[in-house]
Design goal:
The chain is mainly α and 892 residues long. It is 63% helix and 4% strand. The strands form two sheets. A five-stranded parallel β-sheet has the order 2-3-4-1-5, with helices on both faces. The protein has a two-stranded antiparallel sheet with strand order 6-7. Strand 6 and strand 7 form a beta hairpin. Helix 34 runs antiparallel to helix 35 and helix 37 runs antiparallel to helix 38. The longest helix has 20 residues. The radius of gyration is 33 Å and the shape is globular.
Length: 892
């Protein structure tokens, strides 16, 4: 991280003090006032104004943004560092610890920290400045800043300096009196400001008429005045000055070109050469400038340019790092490209070498690409991949791969493999296979041609490339549903991997586990996949380990052990949020998993809470292959309430997001939609789905969900479903055993064999390891299932009936929020839900609100909603009163 991004601009001598604007900024820092927007085109003095003002504030964090901050993890690191300037108690975090975090989740941790600090320091005021915000284009970064803006405590204030208005809710802030705006008209120099600047700061001796005329010509545009002043320094004759000012007209673009010509024309060739050569750099320091220009006097040259007000902006107090005024830099670059295009490759190559030597790989790659030195860029990217993978900077890698010509990628086995991975993430399996073929062919060619192999970076990725190739071919086979191919390729990867190649071994073992799951052997899948997760843990790959926890939970559900799945999800969430750190990737998926378990328990309110938390975490909290699952589970929740229209819309959304990947598709969206049609009673639509199925005679585990959906259609039509049920083999899968047994009981009852149906139902429930966790399985079968449960004299049906509604059809929407047996609630008219009881217990501790929110994996706002409901139901107004009343009612 460049520390200079966090430095306030160095204070200059002779700056024109804008007292009125300073007072406006001072007035904006008050409790509850959220945003000051300083928005104007280039050259209006935004950074100077805000920098001078910020230097007078007590608690201020400064962040100068650049194009690289469009990558969310990098932005988070820099933002966190800027906020640490305000609150030194913030835990110091690195890009490694933040890179996998969904942006809003990381900022939730920030908000919680500052909320606690606000309670300790109620009179404090904090200012965060984001300079050059116009460089930000990434929607997720905009969303992150909006999230911070909307949730930060009242003592915090955001100042944004930008050339264009950001996509924040400005109208709402403006209406609510929470926005102060400083625009171009406010920043323009009036005649008095122009006189101080031109005559006192720039050392000219212009008459009042000339100052007013020049101010009129530039319309108070500060950069224009500065450029004009530089041009006028060499004009001594009063008549020539007046003539110059009189001719000074035209659009800003014309004025810029004209004045830069004048400025550069008055510089010596040595200075002009330095300016043009270093214009390719976003930031300048003497050793970097020496490397680019081939000089040895860049320290002196930078100092002279700074003293001459040659549009050089110091970035630190020691004046070690600088940048050119953006406007000046853009014109210099345009002139360099027009006049000396042949020099550009060498300049960028020199910059790339300097950045690489200083371990600033992103800048090194950027300049190599700008030089069209693609072989060097490829080499640098190969070296960077281990760090990018470890810190989850997938955005950088994908952007770089897209910037390289295809033939360059194909000449590198490592980049070919990475390119194949990116194509798989985009759903292009055929493209992925072509890239893997390229990698295999290039490895073979490199074994024969030492010159070709010498161009590859000597990295662990290259050493393990043969095994990694097999690993990705296993992924490809898995995505295509080729179980045998997955096993063959994964086993070959294991054979090629060394004992310490934990990442490859974990991946290969994972695919063997997935293949066993796809084949229906869930016990082998659990054993193999758990071992693979241990390898990932040994590799220190927390993110992939958490990704895998989502899959492991699904396997336990297939095994009929949802309680084990819940333990996996909750333990993984505790790991993800250990020490109060932001959520790494996959946490949204863990919440979706918990929502699905709650839905099956018919705890629909709790399911929706988890889904809302997952939504707030955003797509960066989810594995690419799982982004459709939020919509799937929400659709099932909506269907459970009878809102079938919304359920169908959600499934349509899920279908657009679904990508075939490494996980078996055990619940196809089309079959889910057919079940909604059945719940609606639309047998025609469900029948159209059944007619469109491919491989209708396939009774493997991967087709089990479809076949059990077809069984339900047969029952709804009055057809005999037993022949199809007889062909389905549940194996050792507890979940399949229960569902097939329940449907067999319904089919027997439909035949008129009530006694045999009851025996079948009792047997299925007796064999199921956790039947009490599958409430919705029974509720969704409606009145026929209710009749069987009432007719049974066995223990399991009676226990299940105690958890179900006592009136109406089971297909009707339920009014209960939970089917768990409630704790004693005394004489409360509206009982507390299980989640509210969990919150109540934590209220009876020393934990703060933010700490309780983290403990139960919800946002602070969600916790406040729970607390408000508890207070309402207990008829109290404070936390202590709620605890006291709960003890009186026997709830604690």
């Amino acid at each position: 991280m460049l520390a200079t991004k966090l430095f306030l601009p160095g204070r200059r001598d002779g700056v024109v003090v804008r007292a009125g604007l300073g007072e406006r900024l001072d007035a904006s820092v008050q409790r509850g006032h959220r945003l000051t927007l300083v928005s104007a085109p280039a050259g209006f003095g935004k950074t100077t104004l805000v920098g001078e003002w910020a230097a007078r504030q007590e608690r201020v964090g400064w962040l100068s943004l650049d194009e690289a901050d469009n990558v969310s993890p990098r932005f988070l690191v820099h933002l966190w560092a800027a906020l640490s300037q305000i609150n030194p108690d913030l835990e110091a975090l690195t890009e490694e610890s933040l890179s996998a975090a969904p942006t809003t989740a990381a900022l939730t941790a920030v908000v919680n920290e500052f909320a606690e600090a606000a309670q300790r320091q109620p009179d404090s005021q904090w200012v965060l400045v984001l300079d050059d915000y116009h460089v930000i284009e990434a929607p997720d970064v905009h969303e992150a800043v909006t999230f911070l803006l909307e949730h930060m405590p009242d003592q915090m204030h955001l100042v944004v300096a930008t050339r264009s208005d950001p996509p924040f809710p400005l109208s709402r802030l403006r209406t609510g009196g929470q926005l102060t705006e400083v625009r171009a008209d406010d920043l323009r120099f009036g005649p008095a400001d122009a006189q101080r600047f031109l005559n006192e700061v720039m050392g000219l001796e212009l008459s009042e008429d000339d100052v007013r005329a020049l101010d009129d010509r530039t319309e108070g545009w500060i950069a224009g005045l500065q450029l004009a002043a530089l041009s006028l320094r060499g004009v001594s004759d009063v008549a020539d000055v007046s003539e110059f000012i009189a001719d000074f007209t035209g659009s800003n673009r014309f004025v810029i070109d004209y004045l830069v010509d004048e400025v550069l024309a008055r510089q010596g060739e040595d200075v002009s050469d330095f300016l043009l050569s270093t214009s390719i750099l976003d930031r300048l320091t003497s050793s970097l400038c020496d490397a680019v220009t081939g000089r040895t006097d860049s320290t002196r040259r930078l100092t002279e340019l700074d003293r001459a007000n040659m549009f050089l902006v110091p970035l630190d107090a020691n004046r070690t790092w600088y940048r050119y005024h953006h406007l000046f830099r853009d014109v210099l670059r345009a002139r360099l490209g027009a006049e000396r295009p042949e020099q550009l490759p060498a300049l960028h190559q020199a910059a790339s070498a300097w950045y690489a030597a200083h371990d600033l790989t992103p800048d090194a790659v950027r300049h190599a690409l700008a030089a069209a030195d693609y072989d060097r860029a490829a080499y640098l990217i190969e070296e960077a991949i281990p760090e990018l993978r470890r810190t989850r900077q997938d955005g950088h890698l994908l952007e770089w791969l897209r910037s390289l010509p295809t033939d360059v990628v194909r000449r590198s086995p490592v980049l070919s493999v990475m390119s194949g991975w990116s194509l798989m993430m985009a759903g292009d399996l055929n493209g992925m296979e072509r890239r893997l073929d390229d990698a295999e062919a290039t490895l073979a060619a490199g074994a024969r041609d030492p010159t070709l192999a010498a161009a590859w970076a000597e990295t662990e990725d290259l050493r393990t490339a043969p095994a990694t190739l097999r690993l990705f071919r296993a992924a490809l086979a898995q995505a295509r549903g080729d179980v045998a191919g997955t096993v063959r390729q994964a086993q070959q990867a294991l054979d090629l991997a060394g004992p310490e190649d934990h990442l490859v071994r974990g991946g290969a073992g994972g695919f063997l586990g997935l293949a066993a799951w796809a084949a229906g052997d869930v016990q082998d899948a659990l054993t193999t996949f758990s071992a693979a997760m241990r390898s990932l843990h040994a590799a220190g790959n927390l993110t992939d380990e958490l990704d895998s926890a989502v899959v492991l939970g699904d396997m336990w559900i297939t095994a009929g052990r949802p309680s084990r799945a819940r333990r996996v999800y909750e333990q993984s969430l505790r790991t993800a949020t250990a020490n109060g750190r932001p959520y790494p990737r996959a946490t949204a998926d863990l919440h979706v998993g918990l929502a699905d378990l709650d839905r099956e328990l018919n705890e629909l309110s709790s399911a929706e809470e988890h889904l809302e938390t997952a939504r707030l975490l955003g797509e960066h909290g989810s594995i690419t292959e799982n982004r459709h699952r939020w919509y799937v589970v929400m659709a099932q929740v909506r269907a459970a309430t009878g809102d079938y229209a919304t359920a169908l819309q959600l499934l349509d959304e899920a279908e657009t997001l679904y990508r075939p990947g490494t996980y078996p598709d055990v619940r196809p969206i089309a079959a889910l939609r057919a079940r909604v049609y059945l719940a609606m009673g639309d047998l025609i639509a469900a029948g159209e789905w059944a007619d469109s199925r491919s491989a209708p005679d396939d009774v493997s585990f991967l087709r089990e969900y479809e076949n059990l959906t077809l069984v339900r259609l047969q029952l709804a039509r009055g057809d005999d479903a037993l022949p199809l049920l007889d062909r389905l083999d549940p194996g050792q899968r507890g979940g399949s055993l229960l569902e097939i047994g329940v449907l067999r009981a319904l089919a027997l009852d439909a035949r008129g064999d009530r006694a045999e149906a009851l025996a079948q139902l009792d047997d299925a429930m007796a064999q199921a390891p956790e039947v009490e966790h599958s409430v919705r399985l029974f509720l969704d079968e409606g009145a026929p299932m209710l009749a069987l449960l009432h007719a049974s004299n066995s223990e399991h049906p009676r226990r299940l009936l105690a958890k179900t509604p006592t009136t109406g059809s089971l297909r009707e929407p339920l009014t209960t929020g939970s089917v768990r047996e409630p704790l004693t609630t005394g004489s409360l008219r509206e009982p507390l839900t299980d989640r509210e009881l969990d919150v109540l217990r934590l209220l009876d501790t020393e934990l703060t609100g933010p700490e309780i929110a983290r403990r139960i994996f919800v946002s602070l706002n969600t916790l406040r909603t729970h607390t408000k409901r508890i207070f309402t139901k207990l008829d109290v107004n404070t936390r202590s009163a709620a605890v006291r009343r709960a003890r009186e009612r026997g709830l604690l």
